[in-house]
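Bench log. Compound arrived from synthesis this morning; before running ITC I wanted a structural hypothesis for how phosphoenolpyruvate sits in the protein. Inputs:
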Amino acid sequence: MRQRIVAGNWKMNTTLLEAKSLTAELMGMVGDEVRGDVKIIICPPYPYLHALQSQLGKSARIEIGAQNCNEHASGAYTGEVSAGMLKSMEVPYVIIGHSERRQYFFESGKQLAQKIDGALANGLKPIFCCGEPLEVREAGDHETLVKEQIEEGLFHLNAEAMKKIVIAYEPVWAIGTGKTATTAQAQEMHLVIRKHLVDKFGEETANMVPILYGGSVKPDNAKEIFSCADVDGGLVGGASLKSRDFVEIIKSA
Ligand code: PEP
């Protein structure tokens, strides 16, 4: 059975104090209410990673991830953070290729492939995002685009490396808009991705890769989305900033 995962992407939100209280609330609620082996990951802004990592402690039920990393190992890239730096802070996960990075920071497929390599070389587990904007879906080209994104970012890997990747399918038209993909739309795209992985890496590998859904996941729609055969959990934006909502979503997985 594939690992079920619920990851929260806090984006550029919270002060340090707010981040610490949100983490404390989550630790309490998760400890009291969450059973089973769903993996829980929070991805706060870079400056809080170290403090929250210490707050969570080594044996924490909640793990931590970064929202991005630079593709270079080190050097004159002012303001950037490398995969090696994340490794040195014992951060186990990193989101790569979020649609906001692709859209606002013009991250290309080639660059994302380099980030994936840098993350894996440093022992990090990448959460690789893909998904189509509204106009692409309306033109009926969503399958082609998402397959291309997967090819560009991940198809240079061998099967062993691929087993370390988590994929998040996030239709851009559903991110932060309140619009969620229907269960049929989500399952259809997750299956497209799974089959594409089967073609390239074989059944065994493809069946081990968790594929998360992202896009306006909320407590009232999470159960339905997570019930799809090829949806292995969620990448949650807005709702991950509210401890009660995030914990209800985790419980749905
Ligand atoms: C996201 O940004 O990854 C996301 C899914 O956001 P939201 O849940 O707010 O749509």
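What the model suggests: The longest strand covers residues 125-130. The pocket of phosphoenolpyruvate is lined by residues 9, 170, 175-176, 214-217, 235-239 (CB under 6 Å).
ITC booked for Thursday regardless.
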